[in-house]
Amino acid sequence: MSRRAKPLLQDDQVLKSKPARPRDPTQPNLPFDPMPERIEPCLALLKQIPPQGPDWAFELKWDGYRLAIHVEPKGVRIITRGGHDWTHRFPTIAEAARKLGVATAILDGEAVVLDKKGHSNFGALQRSLGGRGGRRASTESVFFAFDLLYFDGHDLTKTELTVRRHLLEDFLDDATGAIQLSEEVDGDGAELLANACSMGLEGIIAKHRDRPYRSGRTGDWIKIKCVQSESFMIVGYEQSKVARGGIGSLLLAARSGHDWVYVGSVGTGFDAKDAAELRALLDKLKTGRPAVALKGKNLVFAEPTLIAEIEFRGWTDDGNLRHASFKGLREVQDNAAVFDINEKPAGTM
């Protein structure tokens, strides 16, 4: 893969930030830190408006699978957000990691498949993996690294983002293969978001420059989307005698602690073939005990197992998705990515 994504172009130039400070070649040797088996990822908090001020750095929001690459003396491991080993699913990325020329490192980033414009495409990534439950290995995917958590025997999670990014930029200088640098961009957040949206991109991520790497949704990282896209659990479907595949719409739910909350249905984004495959999967999961309290004619309820990536335009007053469209199924290992209703920004409609 030689194509390099060039997001947020203005006059054919990538807006890149300068390193915050020069590296000190006289830095004394530091004691080695034990390499962790896994680091729970830092997650971005959803907001409607980008933050302002010099404390924030911006990047493109990628539409793919969040992964951590562990480069170890004994080999390479590629770990999903939920902690599953997917090294075998991304052999091209794993091979590129073996050639990085470092004994130990943990890279945080996202695996994507790029279209001809250099934009990430979740549906293309899913197809490259053979769809949900598929056994294909994705050779088309590219890993965009946006953080460096461990490097050459040293734990970097307690250092501020500017230091981690500086090391990452040096480490992946001009990388163009299956592992690339997620470019940091300079500028006003509102202008960058408008630029991203005008190009049909997913949105932007804002990160506080002076914060350490903290697991969970702390607010150190913020995501601002052009079009909202989240993962929801399919809890059933509405039967139809006229719709393709016999499915009129899919019934969706979000998390609320250990419970499920109905957030509406989606009836677009899938064709007759998709609908037939979805119905076959859901019919195997039929249940008489719905995961959500919902009544209506022609409803078929299913065990909460299938996870759908849904694009939507906002929320209605009664808490349902507006103008929802189906993008594809996520793997069962992506259970951790299902949207929590408590993360919905206040005032969204």
TrEMBL record:
Pfam families: DNA_ligase_A_C, DNA_ligase_A_M. It catalyses: ATP + (deoxyribonucleotide)n-3'-hydroxyl + 5'-phospho-(deoxyribonucleotide)m = (deoxyribonucleotide)n+m + AMP + diphosphate. Keywords: Ligase. Coiled coil: none annotated. GO terms for molecular function: ligase activity. Its EC number is 6.5.1.1. InterPro entries: ATP-dep_DNA_ligase (IPR050191), DNA_ligase_ATP-dep_C (IPR012309), DNA_ligase_ATP-dep_cent (IPR012310), LigD_ligase_dom (IPR014146), NA-bd_OB-fold (IPR012340). This is DNA ligase (ATP). It comes from Rhizobium mesosinicum.
